[in-house]
């Protein structure tokens, strides 16, 4: 396993906002991956692979319409989550998330649409940015382990991304975790 401390994310350029509806905003993240849609698809639906990169765990595969228990890192209470759309290896929808996979050259363009409270939009963008990077490492055969929740927020790189996305979205970056340096 590659050491997480050797990992450093690039600039805050993966996310954008498409809808601002009251307190819930739609955050869109796009990432070009060097892996086939089929390989990326498996990482999106397989509970064992999700545990390696995503900021949540599920109790069953996301590969069929139905219901799973989804537990976010840092929140021990599972959420009953309905899987409403499964079109392998192109589209997946559950809860407040929609994933699309498109062939792109010899890889995949992965797009996530997720609804998020506007007060946390920069934090969510920073977290998903890092999760997408961790996914890429996993699919490349050099996993670095999940970096999510409070563990992600300890990274200076997460703090930087949070500040960059806040500026990009025109919101105030939350000073989180408490005592974190202000940027």
Q: Distance between termini?
A: 31 Å
Which superfamily, in CATH terms, is the homologous superfamily?
A: START domain
Order of strands across the main sheet: 1-2-8-7-6-5-4-3
Helix content: 25-40%
Radius of gyration: 16 Å
CATH fold name, please?
Alpha-D-Glucose-1,6-Bisphosphate, Chain A, domain 4
Q: Tell me, briefly, the overall form.
A: globular
- Which quaternary structure do these chains form? single chain
Along the chain, the helix and strand elements come as EEHHEEEEEEHHH
Mean pLDDT metric: 91
What would you say the CATH architecture is? 2-Layer Sandwich
Q: Based on helices, strands and strand pairing, what is the structural class? A: alpha+beta
**Low-pLDDT runs:** none
Give the tally of structural domains: 1
Name of the CATH class = Alpha Beta
Strands, count: 8
């Amino acid at each position: 396993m590659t050491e997480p401390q050797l990992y450093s994310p690039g600039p805050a350029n993966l996310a954008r906002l498409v809808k601002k509806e009251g307190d819930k905003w739609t955050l869109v993240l796009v990432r070009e991956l060097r892996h086939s849609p089929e390989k990326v698809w498996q990482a999106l639906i397989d509970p064992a692979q999700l545990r390696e990169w995503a900021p949540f765990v599920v109790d069953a595969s996301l590969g069929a319409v139905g219901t799973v228990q989804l537990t976010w890192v840092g929140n021990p209470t599972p959420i009953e989550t309905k899987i409403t759309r499964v079109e392998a290896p192109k589209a997946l929808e559950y809860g407040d998330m929609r994933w699309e996979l498109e062939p792109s050259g010899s890889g995949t363009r992965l797009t996530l649409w997720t609804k998020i409270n506007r007060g946390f939009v920069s934090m969510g963008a920073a977290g998903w940015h890092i999760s997408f990077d961790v996914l890429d490492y996993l699919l490349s055969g050099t996993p670095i382990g999940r970096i999510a929740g409070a563990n992600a927020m300890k990274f200076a790189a997460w703090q930087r991304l949070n500040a960059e996305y806040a500026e990009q979205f025109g919101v105030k970056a939350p000073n989180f975790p408490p005592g974190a340096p202000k940027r």
